[in-house]
Amino acid sequence: MPQPATLTVSLLVNGRRIAAEIDPRRTLLDLLREDCGLTGPKKGCDHGQCGACTVHVDGKRMLSCLKLAACADGHAVTTIEGIAGEAGLHPLQQAFIDHDAFQCGYCTSGQIMSALEALADPALTTRAQIQEFMSGNLCRCGAYNGIVDAIMDLKADAQL
Ligand code: FES
Ligand code: FES
Question: Domain ends where: 60, 82, 104?
C-alpha cells in the first residue's frame, strides 16, 4: 500500500522555529495541538463556525481549523500561549479576568486572539462595532457582555 506523500513545513510559532513532516491535508489547528503541544487553540466545531481555534498568522486572526498547515509554511503563528510577557499576563488576559469574561473558558483563547485584533484596529470604536467584529467567536456560556466590556476597557485606556 503506497504511503501518502508528505511535505515539510517550517513555521515560526510563538517565536520558536518549528519544522514538521506532515500530511498535506493536515490543518494548522491539528499541527499546533498535536505536533506542537499547544492546546490553547480549541477544536470546537472544526468547521469554521465557532471561532474557538482562532490564532494569528502574521498578526491577523485566522481560523486555524480552516487553514492548511502547508499554507502557513514560512509564516509567523501566534497562539494564546504566546501573548503573555515576562512580566505576566497580557493586559487583555487580565481584563478578561477583571470583567468576568468567561465561565467554562473553552472559547476564551479564541475570543482573546480575536479581541487582540479588535484592540489594534483604530476603526473599531463603538460597542456595536466591537460586537460585530467579535460575532464569529461563539460563547456557549454567554459571557458576551464581559468580553466586550474587557475590550472596551482597554480601548478606553489606550485613549488616555
Ligand atoms: S474549531 Fe475552528 S471555527 Fe470552530
Ligand atoms: S466561557 Fe464557556 S463557551 Fe465561552
Answer: 82
